[in-house]
Amino acid sequence: MDILTLLFIAIGLSMDAFAVSVANGAILGCLRGRKIAPSALKIGFFFGGFQCLMPILGWLAGVGIRQHFKSIDSVIMTADHWIAFGVLSLIGGKMIYESLRLSGKGPGAKERTCCADDLVVMTGLAIATSIDALAVGLSFSFLGVSVPLPAVFIGIVTFVVSFGGVYLGSRIGHFFEKKIGIAGGIILVLIGTKILLEHLAAK
What is the domain count for the chain? Predict the structure, then answer.
């Protein structure tokens, strides 16, 4: 997998974490300068760490599935790009749908909450925003992509994006929050489409 594709995947996966970081930054908006840095670092490490771990877990799950179904391995290999396309498209569609729900005003509208000082809340948010990375790790396994380097790369990108999101949120609040998930979802759908088209073109 080329570095540009990996970069776009990492950016797409980090958008949920970025949105939460912006919201957290808005909550911390009354703080300034050095007082924001500890919270920004904590959020960055939590989100980046889980975004690094989840693709590895997903990849290991995919390896287990492949080993369990060795008798149909040729079928899996034939369908691997379709699987990757389906997984990334579903993830992207989910992100778009949830972002649209977030922008709703009815009782079903989704709300994000965050608190950098609550370890339990931060852990829950880190897991929730990295579930999509678990599925991407699964698709990496089907594609035969080695996972350690992509996982670390995704984690670093998420750390940087989340760290910056806290500072951005402290300045502009929730203005862009509802649009971030939509952008991330579109990116992942496009990446899945690119993988599928490259596979079809190679036939």
Answer: 1
- How confident is the model over 132-157, as pLDDT tens digits? 888 888 888 877 888 899 999 999 99
What are 36-92's pLDDT values in tens digits? Answer: 788 889 899 999 999 999 999 999 988 777 666 554 444 444 555 676 677 778 777
The answer to the question of residue 51 being in a domain is yes
The reported pTM is: 0.68
Contact (CB, 8 A) for 144 and 76 = no
DSSP string, 38-105: HHHHHHHHHHHHHHHHHHHHHHHHHHHHHHHTGGGHHHHHHHHHHHHHHHHHHHHHHHHHHHHHHT--
Segments forming the whole domain that contains residue 132: 37-65+75-106+116-202
